[in-house]
Specification:
Elements: E1 3-11, H1 16-33, E2 36-41, E3 50-57, H2 60-72, H3 74-86, E4 89-97
Helix pairs in contact: 1-3
């Protein structure tokens, strides 16, 4: 069963450009580490501090393998450090979804 991880980010609204840079870096890292990146979304109108991402995996086991690979990937760790040092992500929530209908 395919699962999709929905990640909801609460951002510092004055550091949205940093989050965009962070998101763009994942475009090559996530697929290399085993995730099927559907995309990242930034605020456009309305709420200015919420962003999201969707990443799919063949199974929860595939997700766990992906997480392990992220921790050993130098670009991944550099991106995590970039986020931590600059504090543009204030909170992060993950929801695991299964598709019901297309």
């Amino acid at each position: 069963m395919t699962i999709t991880v929905f990640i909801r980010y609460q951002l510092d609204p004055f550091k949205r450009a940093m989050f965009e840079e962070y998101a763009r870096r994942w475009l090559t890292i996530i697929p290399r580490c085993g995730g099927d990146l559907i995309g990242y979304w930034m605020p456009h109108e309305g709420t200015n501090n919420i962003a999201s991402a969707l990443i799919s995996f063949d199974s929860l086991a595939a997700y766990e393998n992906y997480r392990a690979r992220l921790r050993t990937d130098s670009e991944s760790m550099a991106n995590f450090n970039f986020a931590e040092e600059n504090r543009f992500i204030l909170a992060e929530e993950r929801t695991f979804l299964r598709q019901v209908a297309a």
